[in-house]
Write a structure and sequence with these properties.
Layout (H helix, E strand, L loop, with lengths): L27 H26 E8 L7 H14 L4 E5 L6 H5 L8 E3 L2 E3 L1 E2 L5 E4 L15 H13 L6 E7 L6 H9 L5 E6 L3 H17 L3 E6 L4 E6 L5 E6 L3 E6 L5 E6 L6 H9 L3 E4 L4 H9 L3 H4 L4 H23 L6
Parallel strand pairs: 1-7, 1-8, 2-6, 2-7, 8-9, 9-14
Antiparallel strand pairs: 3-4, 5-6, 10-13, 11-12
Bound molecules: adenosine-5'-triphosphate (ATP) and magnesium ion.
C-alpha cells in the first residue's frame, strides 16, 4: 500500500524528501563534510585492503636513541629481501634521513600519482617510504605540530601503494612517542614489535620501558635484539700461534691461529648478555646479537648498507640468524596461534 506523503510542520528544521521531490541541494558545509567522510571511508577501505596484501608487519622500536634502530630495521628488510621475499620499509622518523641514506635513496622526494603515494625502490628491490621524502632539504629541521605529524602518518598508512608484500618493516623515532601509538591504532594485524637495545644498563632500562609500552599498545613483543654486541678483531700470524688479547675490564682472551694463519677474537667493548637478561626478565624471546661493526657507520655514509656491501660477512650472517628467529616466531604464530622460538 502506498504511504501518504510525509507531512511536517511548516517551520520544522527537519527536511523530508518525498518520492518525486527533487533532492535538497547540500550546503557547501555539508558537501565538505560528505567529502571528508567519503575520503575517510576510502582510506579505511584502502587500509583494510593493504592489511590483506601485506602478510607480516613488524614495528622496530627502542627506548633510547642511537642504539641502531634504523640500521637494524634496514638490515632486517635487506636480509629478508636477500631471501627473495617482497619487502617494504616504512620510516616514520622525521628527524633524520638515515633510512633513505642507507638505502641509497638520499635526496628522494615523495612520488604521488593519481592520488596514491608510490614507494621508492632501494637496494635489493626493497620498497621504501620515508618521512624524510617530505623534507625540503636535509639541513632544515622540521618542526611539525603533533596533529599534522599524526595526519601524515595516517596518510602514509592509508595512501601508499605497497602492492603485495611479504614483510613491512616500520622504523620509529626513539622512545614511547605518539608515532608508534598512531601506527598501532591505524594499521590492522601488526605481527608485533622488535626491540633494539645495546648491552649497556641504561639502554636496557629503556628497553624495559619499551616492553611495557608494547603491552599497553596491545602489540605483541616479537623479541629483543642486542646491537653493537662485541667487536671482533682479526689478524694473521703463523699457523698454530697462541695469542693473548687484552679485553676491556682487565680480561684476557686467548685465541689460536687456524691452518691459514688467521685469528679472530671477540671483545665485549660494552657489556654482554644484557639483552638476553632483559628478554628473560620479561618472558619475551631473545632474537640474537649483532656485532659492533664500523662498516655500518661507513655504509650509512656511503649509501650502501653492510648487508649489501658484504653479504657473506659476519654482520650479514648475524642479521640472517636474527631474521630466521623473527620469521620463525611470526610465521608459526600466523600458522597455528603462537609457538615459542627454539
Ligand atoms: N652494530 C653496529 N656497529 C657499529 N655501528 C653501528 C651499529 N649499529 C648502528 N651503528 C651506528 O650507530 C649510529 C646510530 O645508528 P642508527 O641511526 O641506526 O640508530 P637509531 O637508533 O636509529 O638512532 P635514532 O634514535 O636517532 O633514530 C649510526 O652511525 C650507525 O652507523
Ligand atoms: Mg633512527
Amino acid at each position: 500500500m502506498a504511504h501518504p506523503p510525509t507531512q511536517l510542520m511548516a517551520d520544522s528544521p527537519i527536511k523530508v524528501n518525498n518520492p518525486g521531490d527533487a533532492p535538497a541541494p547540500a550546503s557547501p558545509e555539508e558537501q565538505k563534510k560528505m567529502e571528508a567522510a567519503y575520503n575517510q571511508m576510502k582510506r579505511k577501505m584502502a587500509i583494510s585492503e593493504m592489511g590483506k596484501a601485506i602478510k607480516h608487519k613488524i614495528m622496530v622500536l627502542s627506548g633510547k636513541g642511537g642504539v641502531g634502530k634504523s640500521t637494524v630495521a634496514t638490515g632486517l628488510a635487506l636480509s629478508l629481501a636477500q631471501q627473495g621475499l617482497k619487502v617494504g620499509l616504512l620510516d616514520i622518523d622525521i628527524t633524520g634521513p638515515n633510512v633513505p641514506k642507507m638505502m641509497g635513496l638520499d635526496g628522494r622526494r615523495l612520488n604521488v600519482e593519481a592520488g596514491r603515494i608510490h614507494p621508492a625502490q632501494g637496494h635489493l628491490g626493497v620498497k621504501v617510504i620515508s618521512m624524510a621524502f617530505l623534507l625540503e632539504d636535509e639541513d632544515t629541521p622540521v618542526v611539525w605540530r603533533g596533529p599534522i605529524k599524526l595526519g601524515a602518518i595516517q596518510q602514509f598508512i592509508g595512501d601508499v601503494d605497497w602492492g603485495e608484500l611479504d614483510y613491512l618493516i616500520i622504523d620509529f623515532p626513539p622512545g614511547t612517542s605518539d608515532e608508534p601509538l598512531t601506527v598501532a591504532q591505524n594499521l590492522p594485524d601488526i605481527d608485533g614489535m622488535v626491540i633494539v637495545t645495546t648491552p649497556q644498563d641504561v639502554a636496557l632500562l629503556d628497553s624495559r620501558k619499551s616492553i611495557t609500552f608494547a603491552n599497553s599498545l596491545k602489540v605483541d613483543v616479537i623479541g629483543v635484539i642486542e646491537n653493537m654486541s662485541g667487536y671482533t678483531v682479526r689478524g694473521k700470524a703463523p699457523a698454530g700461534t697462541e695469542l693473548e688479547l687484552a679485553a676491556p675490564g682487565g680480561k684476557t682472551i686467548r685465541v689460536t691461529t687456524d691452518e691459514n694463519g688467521d685469528w679472530a677474537g671477540t671483545l665485549d667493548i660494552f657489556k654482554a648478555g644484557g639483552g638476553q637478561k632483559t628478554a628473560e626478565e620479561f618472558g619475551v624471546p631473545f632474537l640474537g646479537k649483532l656485532p659492533f661493526d664500523p662498516g655500518f657507520v661507513r655504509g650509512g655514509d656511503d649509501g650502501v648498507h653492510r648487508i649489501v656491501s658484504e653479504p657473506e660477512g659476519p654482520s650479514a650472517i648475524a642479521f640472517n640468524k636474527v631474521v630466521e628467529n623473527i620469521q620463525h616466531k611470526v610465521e608459526s604464530a600466523s600458522n597455528d596461534g603462537g609457538l615459542e622460538i627454539i
